[in-house]
């Protein structure tokens, strides 16, 4: 049983293979498959396998079809892929994916820099993407990037993020995810935004995606759970963030999130030792130290299942 | 006004000069004074200046008297020092300190390794220390080390930590602090222990001290505030933890804690820019990268006082 104030279960999506790898120097498809299999061994139920985006813009995702084919041969996992355009959605569906994440930036500055479209234009494209995904019986998630802050436009007005959320759902999004793209939010702001979205959309299925860039990612994830979010993205090793770009930091580390959820008696389906092993694999395959403090320190020894 | 669920104010104690420096290679007293002054400039109201402990055991604290003399020449701050024995308390009081922290390990394993006394023996010494401190009109805090876990004995039974807390107060402790000495606790366990202490001791003035060794320190600090703790230790730059000892990590970083408290509208008296500057000073004076993600990334630009 989970501790007071915690949900019984949290639905973790492992994003190391996409968000984790996309700004790294490309690693071989073989190395990705090795990491993918280590991640499958953690027991996680949802895995973001790759992104169907321009190989010129994101060379690390150039092997999307190959990775997807391998992934879809493994049962028991809900595999997803990120897309940034109707063409990407078509590619993902053709590759066999049935859970598609389409990213829309709530701020024009980031949207223009990322996909050369305004937020309005990106929202308008949901129609075509939803038709593509639903046409094959798939499921569409809209990830709202820069939901809290934009590196170009500053704080994103809450009304703007809520409006994107509302319109995404109206246009066919089956689920939504709030993305703290540049790792600037914090617990109080998380609660404010989640409550604002829920006050307009009602009890929508809401996920959240945090980076640990200001050290507050795990605390923000806890706040999101308090506010009713039940789906969280995380990345083994805290992968993501370029080691050569001062200031960048990765996603919240799956093993650190799991560490505190296990203590709280929250079910995730993940095994702590296997998750730490996957993080160690990621570090070995990438060839540089990852961000995760837990990976560095190791877990504590404790009787299994105890949450005193 | 603070956001819902947050206290109006949090009383931060800056511990970089003691817990932060004690396992570093000793730096000159001049460098310490420089850091001390950068910390004073943050606006923090309580600063742990040094420790009066064996200079053989902790060479980095050998200049305790000199640092204390300098500190006490600066008004507007409650200066404290850590001691581990009645002799240390006498030295601290003789140096002019009037807020004394006496550390008692709740686990015998850590207590014996740290001070060659069992927990019982360390508790018994509170009488003499309280007499020394109260004899000069001072204030005694008992810090309960290994309040959650001991590196030697494993998880500390809750009843054991609560018993130390109860007896410390009976023997004269004016305030108590729960120490996550090896950085293993997590939000759910924090709430459980704080509630257990409060259920036995009533509305006692309770502080907490977290390390970020498993990446969950800031989340644990938020949980402690939820549970009614209003005093938190933190260290600029996340100082603490030896860079040459794999696995060690420092205290929660003052600037990261402040970042989320500012967003929540919680008053601390600290200035964000000055705190980041103090963290940068610490990093320069120590000569190696510190743990703080925020120090690496920098804060976000935002209108002052806004917590949207």
Automatic annotation (TrEMBL), chains A, B:
<dbReference type="GO" id="GO:0046951">
    <property type="term" value="P:ketone body biosynthetic process"/>
</dbReference>
<comment type="similarity">
    <text>Belongs to the HMG-CoA lyase family.</text>
</comment>
<protein>
    <submittedName>
        <fullName>Hydroxymethylglutaryl-CoA lyase</fullName>
        <ecNumber>4.1.3.4</ecNumber>
    </submittedName>
</protein>
<dbReference type="GO" id="GO:0046872">
    <property type="term" value="F:metal ion binding"/>
</dbReference>
<dbReference type="GO" id="GO:0006552">
    <property type="term" value="P:L-leucine catabolic process"/>
</dbReference>
<keyword id="KW-0456">Lyase</keyword>
<dbReference type="GO" id="GO:0004419">
    <property type="term" value="F:hydroxymethylglutaryl-CoA lyase activity"/>
</dbReference>
<dbReference type="InterPro" id="IPR000891">
    <property type="entry name" value="PYR_CT"/>
</dbReference>
<keyword id="KW-0479">Metal-binding</keyword>
<dbReference type="Pfam" id="PF00682">
    <property type="entry name" value="HMGL-like"/>
</dbReference>
<feature type="domain" description="Pyruvate carboxyltransferase">
    <location>
        <begin position="10"/>
        <end position="276"/>
    </location>
</feature>
<dbReference type="InterPro" id="IPR013785">
    <property type="entry name" value="Aldolase_TIM"/>
</dbReference>
<dbReference type="InterPro" id="IPR043594">
    <property type="entry name" value="HMGL"/>
</dbReference>
């Amino acid at each position: 049983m989970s501790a007071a104030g915690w949900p019984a279960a949290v639905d973790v999506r492992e994003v190391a293979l996409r968000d984790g790898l996309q700004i790294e120097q490309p690693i071989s498809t073989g190395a990705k498959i090795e990491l993918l299999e280590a991640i499958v061994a953690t027991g996680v139920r949802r895995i973001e396998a790759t992104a169907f985006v321009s190989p010129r813009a994101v060379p690390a995702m150039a092997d999307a079809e190959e990775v997807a084919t391998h992934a879809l041969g493994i049962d028991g996992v809900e595999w997803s892929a990120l897309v940034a355009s109707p063409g990407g959605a078509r590619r993902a569906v053709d590759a066999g994916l049935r859970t598609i994440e389409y990213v829309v930036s709530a701020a024009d500055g980031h949207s223009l820099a990322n996909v050369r479209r305004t937020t309005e234009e990106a929202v308008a494209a949901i129609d075509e993407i939803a038709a593509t995904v639903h046409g094959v019986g798939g499921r569409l998630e809209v990830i709202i990037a820069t939901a809290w802050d934009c590196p170009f436009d500053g704080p994103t007005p809450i009304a703007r993020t809520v409006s994107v959320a509302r319109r995404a759902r109206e246009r066919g999004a089956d689920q939504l995810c709030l993305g703290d793209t540049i790792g600037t939010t914090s617990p109080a702001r998380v609660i404010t935004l989640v409550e604002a979205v829920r006050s307009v959309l009602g009890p929508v299925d809401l996920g959240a995606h945090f980076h640990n860039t200001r050290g507050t990612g795990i605390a923000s994830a806890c706040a999101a759970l308090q506010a009713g979010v039940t789906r969280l993205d995380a990345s083994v090793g805290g992968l993501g963030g370029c080691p050569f770009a001062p200031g960048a930091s990765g996603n919240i580390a799956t093993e650190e999130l799991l560490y505190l959820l296990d203590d709280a008696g929250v079910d995730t389906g993940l095994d702590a030792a296997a998750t730490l092993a996957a993080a160690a694999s990621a570090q070995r395959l990438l060839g540089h130290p990852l961000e995760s403090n837990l990976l560095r320190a190791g877990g504590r020894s404790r009787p299994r299942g105890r949450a005193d």
